[in-house]
Predict the structure.
Amino acid sequence: MLTERAKEIVSNADQKMQDTVTFLEEDLKTYRVGKANPSIFNNVMVNYYGSMTPIPQVASVGSPDAKTLTIQPWEKSLIPAVEKAILDANIGLTPSNNGEIIRCIVPALTEERRRELIKKASGAGENAKVAVRGIRRDAIDQLKKAQKNEGLSEDAEKEAEEEVQKITDKHVKSVDQVIAAKEKDILTV
């Protein structure tokens, strides 16, 4: 039977691991995979009155069709700054505007670019797994300290370690599934 302290350590580890998987999913959304996806602009920063701000916070971003992204800044004076931010972000899009709306045509991916994206996604997945395992290590260290300093029984500590390992396995598998889905998305022409 897990004590309150052991449950708290396991629960914190589970939450941190879930946050790691969520971060990975959000990061992978910013990869340009040949389909128009407005979230590609989530990390593109534009100079907005002296502070660097993500494009979706200064403009409405849309996707009227599968190959086009539109950005309509709330202030027309921002159009040049948004275009410069897109070019500087080096995301493979070339903006053009008609005075009100910026359009970006999403080019089809080359085979080489697809391989690069898969390699990048796999790297992000490995980093997420390393983070999950680091969280596991920290949780086990906390459990050992709790056994030593807080009177947690050895049985409760072992049981909690097993629980931490189970959630670690679950989140590592989750990372693998996220990466596999992204690779499939990248390879879909």
